[in-house]
Design brief:
mainly alpha; 9 helices; globular; 56% helix
Length: 191
Amino acid sequence: ASVDKSEQSVDQNTEDRQDIESPYEGLSDESFGVEIGSSNTPHDFNDEDMDRGQTQSASITLSEHLLAQLGLTQLSARDRALVAFLIEALDDNGYLAQSLEELLDVLPVEPVADETSAETRENLLDDLKIALRHLQQFSPLGIAARDSRECLTLQLDACVANPERDLARLLIKQHLELVANRDYVRIKKSL
């Protein structure tokens, strides 16, 4: 009986969300030419290797891996489309090389007529920032960072808070160049 009530609650919440108008017409998964949560790439498994106990991993791209994770989220269709857009904007190393402002210029969206262009742009930029935060929670840790400092910080944020993590965050924030150059003497003096 409680399961039925939970299902009814979920159905009601879904219906309530469908009644809310999106501030951006035409923004959906299809807007970006990606299919979320599935892959049309065939995976070739060698039966002989499997019989010998050797596992052959399926070859998937970083983009496919991230889109598969996106397919498991509970995000709205619009938010999923924004995250998918950011996934497609990542470089081969998983970095977001373009600024959100630059990406906003190429985002395929038609603003609602009653909003000014500046308001629409500012709202969409905020939405992209939120989508970026969602993407940065995906695996691998550090994905969608804009530089190595942010990548390392994202990785440390996933660690349990302790004095060592705090020291590592301080080193990354203030002394990343010294760490990269292995200049431990200067690091020790600055701490």
